[in-house]
Amino acid sequence: MIGSIFQDALKNLTANLLRSSLTMLGVIIGVASVITMIAIVEGGQLWLVNSIERLGTNLLFVWKKRLTVEERRIFAGRNTQLRYEDALAIRERFPELDVAPVLEIDQKIKAGDRDYSGRVTATSPEFSTIRNFHPASGRFLTSTDLHDWHRTIVLGQTVAQALFGSSPALGEEVKIRDHRFTVVGVMEPKGEIYGQDYDEMMFIPITTGMRFFTGTNKIRFLILHVPQRERMPEITEELHQFLVQRHDGVDDIFIRNQGEFLGAVEQTIWTFRIVLSGIALVALLVGGIGIMNIMLVTVTERTREIGLRKAIGAKRRDILLQFLIESTTISIVGGTVGIVVGIVAAYGFGNMVAQAMPGGGDWGAVIQPSAIAIAFLFAIAVGVTFGLFPAIKASKLDPAEALRYQ
Amino acid sequence: MLIDLRAVTKTYQAGHVAVPALKGIDLRIHHGEFVAIIGQSGSGKTTLLDILGCLSHPTSGEYWLDGENTNVISESRLTTIRNQKIGFVFQTFHLLPRKTALDNVQLPLMYAGVPRVSQHRRAQELLTMVGLQDRLLHYSNQLSGGQQQRVAIARALANHPALLLADEPTGNLDTQSGKDILDMFETLHRDGQTIVMITHDPSIAQRANRRITLSDGQVVADETSDLSASARPISSEQT
Ligand SMILES: Nc1ncnc2c1ncn2[C@@H]1O[C@H](COP(=O)(O)OP(=O)(O)OP(=O)(O)O)[C@@H](O)[C@H]1O
Ligand SMILES: [Mg+2]
Questions:
Q1: Predicted confidence (pLDDT) per residue in B162-185, tens digit
Q2: Backbone angles phi, psi at A138, to 5 degrees
Q3: In chain A, what are the domain boundaries?
Q4: Distance, CA B167 to ligand 2 centroid (Å)?
Q5: Which residues pair with A121 in a beta bridge?
Q6: Which atom of ligand 1 is nearest to the CA of B50?
Q7: Burial class (CB in 10 A: 0-12, 13-18, 19+), B164
Q8: Which residues contact B105 (CB under 8 A, 6 or more apart)?
Q9: Which of A22, A207, B61, B233 gives B7 a disulfide partner, CB atoms 3.0 to 4.6 angstroms apart?
Q10: What is the ipTM of this complex?
Q11: Which ligand is nearest to the CA of B48?
């Protein structure tokens, strides 16, 4: 009997095609927005997590705090800078950490008649492993480079391209100010992460940088890699104390934990999720109200039919089932169309973001089967919930009165 | 005895006004009778038919159908009684639109829980009986009024009802179609079918073997035709 009721439901819906389609539109929009929003949030999260992982994981950043005029007066004469020696001391005190001191030098790099204005990163060999950024050809900086103040340079893809075009850069010479540097490596392409285009970077030994360009042992910041994530808070604390002690008791540094950053990102994503699901649910709710509305109209229109069915032997539950199946059919058909629309919209939107967002090239919507299942179940639930009241109303009609309804 | 009404009244509530439609009806109808109920508009004919068909309960009094007191049974049981023991034929046919003649006749069989194959066979048989064997797959709106009413009769007979109730079955038909329907009723009656038919047309009422006249909610006349004029197998039970 269910089978024939279902057939009847489809027949009734196709008999009023325009009306049914308009009603379904509500469900379609609701389900499509659920699918699209989940796909976008999931895609965004995947992208963020990926890009954070590409930056390297379990990182601590040590920066120098900017002191006020007052503080500078009070602490005059004390050792209040972040220096190369701090990096060496940390290595000795915390042998389990990878430490990369960083100095940035803005310079014009020349090769023959071509030049390139950019930022030279003076650092140590650890930088490559910490940031998970490796040479495609040649090598990265070595400890010998640092020890002997070698004038070696490793170029990012874009820089190599700009200076040497398609001919190999390895072994060539470039000039920074009046100093000749030998190209010992070219980095792999990595693209842009958080506004930093890795392909525009170039690296020289930090010792060379200090000796030839800044003339001091001050550095800009330190990156540290902690082997175990769970030890990060503890190490942060110890590191802080250690550096304050080295700086004659002046607390002039701050340490940023990449984990905190990840946590903040995750929290933002959760907020997004909640807000977007709210919107999607409201859309589904509106779709449900549309179903209820149209089912109430249908019940009124078909009062005589209901009376007749009851007269010839339809029980209450037969009538209830009939109208419930009809409202659920609307939501199932609408839900199916909505899923297709949602998937198309999600991928379309994903592509749009990938093209519009700098560094978003690998951004994409993520559609999980569970999201489709959830949306579909929601659609059915909406059909049943909002069809229930009209169906109960129909099932309770008095047959004698219903038959004479005009 | 198939029908036994004892002091049945029905009062409608129209807002705050009580409208007495039936004012104490005592009536007995035996198996195999062909009864016409006549009376002026508003006299309570349809109200009486609703009660006979278990579509509504009397306000007071008792209605015994086939030995069962309908006042004291559940709504679900009443539905089963309508499905199994009563067949309805209405003035306005009440066929379902967007359904074929066959589907319409199968409906009471479906609600009775008859298997699909048997539904189909029985419906085909009934439509052949009413002369519509070549209209099985026509939709209701593709049939003439007379044909629609014949489909309705086939539907009413689907579950071998003890009682066939008809409210002005010829009211919406031309003379010839109306005559065909009445001929069909007569044939059914001859085969032992109990029929109660409402009409306000005295000439149609003449086709029945018993005429009950209602006026203002009361039975004012109850006359039976000469027994020799029509077969009235009182003792024959319905299948
Ligand atoms: N649902 C109702 N509410 C209130 N009064 C009603 C209702 N149904 C019928 N009545 C009243 O009950 C009385 C009997 O009505 P009924 O329909 O039984 O008459 P009838 O004999 O079938 O008339 P007709 O020949 O016009 O069909 C009428 O006075 C009518 O107005
Ligand atoms: Mg009437």
A1: 999 999 999 999 999 999 999 999
A2: 75, -145
A3: 2-53+262-404, 59-258
A4: 7
A5: A104, A203
A6: 18
A7: buried
A8: B122, B123, B126, B127, B151, B154, B155, B158
A9: B61
A10: 0.93
A11: 1
